[in-house]
Structures are given as C-alpha cells and as structure tokens.
Amino acid sequence: MSLRLFLATLQFMTRIPVPERWTQGLAMDNYERGIVGFPFIGLIVGVIGGGVFTLLAPWCGVPLAALGYVLALALITGAFHLDGLADTCDGVFSARKREQMLEIMRDSRLGTNGGLALIFIVVAKVLVVSELALRDVSMFAMLTAASVVGRTVIVLLMYRQRYAREGNGLGNIYIGKVTGRQTAVTLAGGAILTLLLGHSAAVWALVITMVVVLLLATYLRRRLGGQTGDTLGAAAEMGELVFLLALL
C-alpha cells in the first residue's frame, strides 16, 4: 500500500488533518486497497486515546479519565463509528420490513433506539475501562490495542459480503470489494500489533472479538440483506467494547 493511499484512508477514517496535496489524484475505486492500513489507523487513534487516559488518570481519577478517553476517540473520528452504531440500532430494532429499516438508517435524525445505543456504548466503555484500571493491566497498551482491534475486525463485514442498498454509498467502497488476500493481511496486521501491545491475553481477546463480530455480521446480513457503511461503524464500536470486556 502506498503512503498516499494510507494518508487518504486516514483522512477518510478520522478527523486528523491531512494536507490535501498529499492525497490528490486518488480515485475512490482504489480505496478498498487501503483496508490493509486499518489496523495502523487504529494504532494512531488508540495511541491518542490511550495517551489522554494516561495523562488524565493521575489528575482527575480513573472514571473521569475513562470518560476523557471515550470523548477523545469520538473527537478524533468525528463520531463516525458512533453515528453508524446509532443508525444501525435505529433501523434494526425498529421492527419494520427490510426496506423500511434501510430507510430509517439513512435518516439523519436520531431515534430512541439509536440514543439508547449511544448511552449504552459510552457508559459501558467508561465502566469497563475503569474496571480494567483497577487490575494489573497496562492501560495505555490495552486501550491502544482496543482501537487496533476495532478497526481490524471491520474487514469481517466486508469480505464476501453484499452491499444492502441499491446504488452507491460510503460502505460500498469496501463491502464485497476486498479480496481474500487483503482480508488475511488486514487480520494478520491487526493480530501482530495486538500481540506486540498486549501479548497472548490480548490475542485471545482479539479471537473472541472476531467470533462475536462474525455473529454480528451474520445477524445483520439476515436482517438487512447485507451490510452498509453504518453497520461497519457499529462493528468497530462493538469490536472495541467486546475486546475490552474479553480482557476482564
């Protein structure tokens, strides 16, 4: 993967400023090759989030530092994945037909199910991070690994999956487009980074997370007829949470 493609993917996945001249001339149909860089984008995001927690914990205590960590991730990504989680829950739990679910997910307004999902994910992350901090855990490394894992497992909702909507969308850049080789390289890259950060315990947590996300992918495919950009975001958020829970 070229540096220009990696920077374009970083710009796409985060709000980290990337000079326009560094990504000019890259066609959108090349973006799926950037999937192999997702674990490393997770590494960058995780270092920032883990750094915020590490800096805040001695000054304001673990619970507020955990809240700062969650807020930092939201700001770095522009709440990109949180928005996907909320839209997915609004649609999937609406008890409507498939077409109506997809239409609800496209609606920019936040519904009750989406609001509850956002409250749950934020509270759950704060509680789990606070509990981990009470144990003999290297918090900076584990919080960094959580972001790596969250972005790595997204590929499981892309490989050999169908785009649920008619026409194009952001998710259609990747869904059904990534190859088996790209998927293997992405998972291997995520596993290596996770091993380096958290050793065998973190790798086992990654395996558990992959199983849960595969089950999520199967459920969403049955409910929606495929995946969308929103379900990719939901998978990233759930992947981070499941990984942290698995460490407990």
What portion of the residues fall into strands of 2 or more residues? Answer: under 5%
Largest sheet: none
Radius of gyration: 17 Å
The residue fraction in helices comes out at 55-70%
Form type: globular
Kindly report the oligomeric state of this protein: single chain
Q: Sketch the topology as an H/E string, one letter per element.
A: HHHHHHHHH
- Low-pLDDT segments, ≥5 res: none
Count of DSSP-assigned helices: 9
Mean of all residue-level pLDDT scores: 93
Would you report the number of β strands? 0
Summing up helix and strand content along with how strands pair, one would put the structural category as: mainly alpha
First-last Cα distance: 35 Å
Keywords: Cell membrane, Cobalamin biosynthesis, Magnesium, Membrane, Transferase, Transmembrane, Transmembrane helix
Enzyme class: transferase
Catalytic activity: alpha-ribazole + adenosylcob(III)inamide-GDP = adenosylcob(III)alamin + GMP + H(+); alpha-ribazole 5'-phosphate + adenosylcob(III)inamide-GDP = adenosylcob(III)alamin 5'-phosphate + GMP + H(+)
EC number: 2.7.8.26
